[in-house]
From TrEMBL:
Residues 40-265 form the POPDC1-3 domain. The lineage of its organism: Eukaryota, Metazoa, Chordata, Craniata, Vertebrata. It is a multi-pass membrane protein. Belongs to the popeye family. One of its GO terms (biological process) is skeletal muscle tissue development. It comes from Eublepharis macularius (Leopard gecko). This is Blood vessel epicardial substance isoform X1. The gene is BVES.
Length: 355
């Protein structure tokens, strides 16, 4: 291109100016609804009423989620009927089919979770007496008793544990039926009644020391039936269930407390033991474990037994000390003020020892 030709080319700028004089105005009546369509069919309104009912149900209502999903399911079904028969709208039909399936599946799941849990007849009294007052749900109790435990039986005179022979690391049991007696070197200590742990002190003590043996003998006084857990599997299960772990801590501590009371009163029966609802304390657990484990480890076991029996009730025939037995300095009798001794400062304990 020649320079003379390039200079002759003129550039015309683009104009973006709008001519408002030639614009046509849209009348107001074309953008605002003047002629409303007729009201939709009654099915459409029934669907929306179901949605409204489901949304206004208060959360304090026990079954509010089930009722909400039921109302949403019914509403979606009515929308499908309306879209198919009266509106002929494919998009409305498809979306409501999806919503219907989602809400229906959720409704079935919630109903399944609320199904009544059937507890075995042999375990029903155990649940009613020990676990239901602590607000343990039936489904949790069923998981606790349905996986790694079994029900065993003992005839009259058969031994559950023999002192210095049976290991305490294998199991934890609750008596369901019958009565057992606990003895040390042939001397009766206390009874075990239904809905009570058989070996709770040993379970508590073996959390600190493994490989120990029973220091007492536990035999069936009647035909007995008991629920037995594998201790290792129970411990592993409770680690994954914090709520049940705290429940077991409370129940075992309470059972140790009841055994302590029965040691001080061998005439205690099953009805009286049911009324013992005291919170388990540290001194109660230490006292029973001291009785069951320390007596046999003492150098003079007969002295330890006699010294322990001094703390029992006056109605016990074994309470009177024998003139042929001397007091062992390693054993301390279970007294009523044992809690004060446990928590008493060391500075105040030493002068009492010298007195």
């Amino acid at each position: 291109m020649n320079p003379s030709q390039a200079s002759s080319i003129t550039v015309t700028p683009l104009s973006f100016s709008l001519d408002f004089r030639n614009a046509t105005t849209v009348p107001l009546n074309e953008t605002v609804c003047e002629n409303w369509r007729e009201i939709h069919h009654l099915v459409f309104h029934m669907a929306n009423i179901c949605f409204a009912i489901g949304l206004v149900i208060p959360t304090t209502f026990n079954l509010h989620m089930i009722v909400l999903r039921a109302m949403l399911t019914i509403g979606c079904a009515l929308f499908i009927i309306w879209a198919t028969l009266f509106r002929c709208a494919l998009d409305i039909l498809v979306w409501n089919i999806v919503f219907l399936l989602v809400n229906l599946l959720h409704f079935i799941y919630l109903v399944y979770k609320k199904r009544p849990i059937k507890i075995d007849k042999e375990l029903n009294s155990l649940y009613k007496r020990m676990f239901e007052p602590l607000h343990v749900p039936p489904e949790q109790f069923q998981r606790l008793t349905g996986q790694f435990c079994n029900i065993q039986m003992l005839k009259t005179g058969q031994a559950y544990a023999a002192e210095d022979k049976t290991s305490v690391d294998d199991r934890l049991s609750i008596l369901l039926k019958g009565k057992m007696k606990v003895s040390y070197r042939g001397h009766f200590l206390h009874n075990i009644y239904p809905c009570a742990f058989i070996d709770s002190p040993e379970f508590r003590s073996t959390q600190m020391n493994r490989g120990e043996k029973f220091q007492v003998s536990i035999t069936a006084d009647d035909n007995c039936k008991f629920l037995c857990w594998s201790r290792e599997r129970l411990t592993f299960f409770l680690e994954s269930e914090p709520f049940l772990f705290e429940i077991f801590k409370y129940l075992i501590g309470k059972d140790i407390t009841n055994k302590l009371y029965s040691l001080n009163d061998p005439t205690l029966n099953d009805k009286a033991s049911q009324k013992m609802d005291q919170q388990p304390s540290l001194c109660s657990q230490l006292s029973v474990m001291q009785m069951r484990n320390s007596m046999a480890s003492s150098s003079d076991s007969e002295d330890g037994l006699q010294h322990f029996l001094r703390g029992t009730s006056t109605g016990s025939s074994l309470r009177q000390p024998s003139p042929y037995l001397r007091t062992s300095p390693k054993m301390k009798p279970i007294e009523e003020n044992v809690e004060d001794d446990v928590f008493e400062p060391s500075s105040t304990m030493k002068p009492k020892a010298h007195q």
